[in-house]
Amino acid sequence: MSKPVIAIDMGGTRIKIGIVQDGILLDSTSIDAYSTNGLRSRLPYIREAVENLLKPQQLSLSDLGGLGIASPGIVDSHRKKVLSIDKKFGDAPEIDLEEWSQKMFNLPFFIENDARSALVGEWIYGNAQNHDNAVLMTLGTGIGSAAIIEGKLLKGKHFTAGILGGHSVINYKGNVCNCGNKGCVETEASTWNLANMRKSEDLPASSVVDYEMIFTLAEEGNTKALEIRNQSLQAWSACAVNLIHAYDPEILVLTGGIMASSSSIIPYLRNYIETYSWTPWGKVHLTEGKFSGTAALLGIAHLINNQ
Description:
Blueprint: E1 5-10, E2 14-21, E3 24-32, H1 43-54, E4 67-71, E5 74-76, E6 81-84, H2 97-105, E7 109-113, H3 114-125, E8 134-139, E9 143-149, E10 152-153, H4 185-188, H5 191-194, H6 211-219, H7 223-247, E11 251-255, H8 262-276, E12 285-288, H9 295-305
Parallel strand pairs: 1-4, 4-7, 8-11, 11-12
Antiparallel strand pairs: 1-2, 2-3, 5-6, 8-9, 9-10
Helix pairs in contact: 3-9, 6-7, 7-8
């Protein structure tokens, strides 16, 4: 039995912190991310959350095997740092997170891209088990992706391979994305861009504009919500086909907060993929992740113990 580890998933809306041992999430909590304000200001709160998790488990830092972070952006898992990040936690590349981990916890440190971490979690413990060619697409604050090819996590020379599916261009005449390009999948359909819909008179005034609201209003026949939902389904479907054509997987796993509406998303994407993917060998298996909210925690914990 391996030692328990601290796993941290830096989501754009919530930062999740968990204690994981041998693929089991012993306990977890989350804190507000306030990601547009940077990561440095959240580090003391992460430390506090870790300490509060350890007490009920009767664990001390000396009982732990390491600490890992699943981070958005381009991550150098060898030098253990964030190289580049898109708006969320914009100061992360300036922070020596390994030094922080040593100073605060005196623990071995590991970091990997969040979508790669989530795919590892599904590959080792979840719905991508027994598939050595798998792709993950995560639908959340942004759109993430990752790929495993012939049993190896795809990283590439500069650590960008597989993870930029959300920044593939599906509308070259589209609006400018956070990354500076035009018409990325994220620009066409992701939670961070939904706030721009707030101005529409066809949507009720609300402090929160999210996909749960959009899918609910669409079911009720709201015209604007239907338009946004349909555009989003088309954008995610185009992204899925691009990923299939790029990486030739056996299985495509969908995760992320937006998958709370999976009953609408899965059938639409399955039909689109089966219609438009060029896969003469057969059909790519499409499935929702087994651990939609915690796959990245399980995955980064596995990577800590197998680095």
